[in-house]
Description:
alpha+beta; 8-stranded antiparallel β-barrel; 6 helices; 9 strands
Amino acid sequence: MLRKADLLEALAGKNRGLLATEQEKQAILVAIAKLEDVNPTPRPVEATNLLNGDWRLIYTTSKALLNIDNLPLYKLGQIYQCIRVETNSVYNIAETYGLPFLEGIVSVAAKFEPVSGRRVNVKFERSIIGLQRLIGYESPESFIEQIELGKKLTAIDFPLNSDEQQGWLDITYIDNNLRIGRGNEGSVFVLTKV
């Protein structure tokens, strides 16, 4: 599909948006909107076979995510969003790197509730910030397994008040390996299936 190829080409070398100029950001938003117009899945939330799984972020306008790159001595590594449809769970995992042996992780666990064919409400429940080696982090999948088993991790690990920590996400495009979402704070997210 030409529109999909156009978007992926526009995103190449932009480091999830960190390296995009203002002009490039505008062109990317136009390419995103064109692809959303031809979404092959009219009710993305109900396409659980497509939605379920691990996704890697390839572009965002979210300042909260991109600002992780500004942590002292750290740079932003890969960012994952892992969706477990069977438990209505979502895990956002940002890897950081910098000093040798001190690679970090910033993660938030949440529950989602479908409210329409393309929108989910999100309630954030737990935040985990720590060093990958202390947590025993090997991959998003093994990390989520630890969380789901209720393991207390050697990290800054604290519950979030879900009454205050809420949001929503519209899934505006999804196919077998690409997903686009728009959040309640106006951010855009483009992810590929891992």
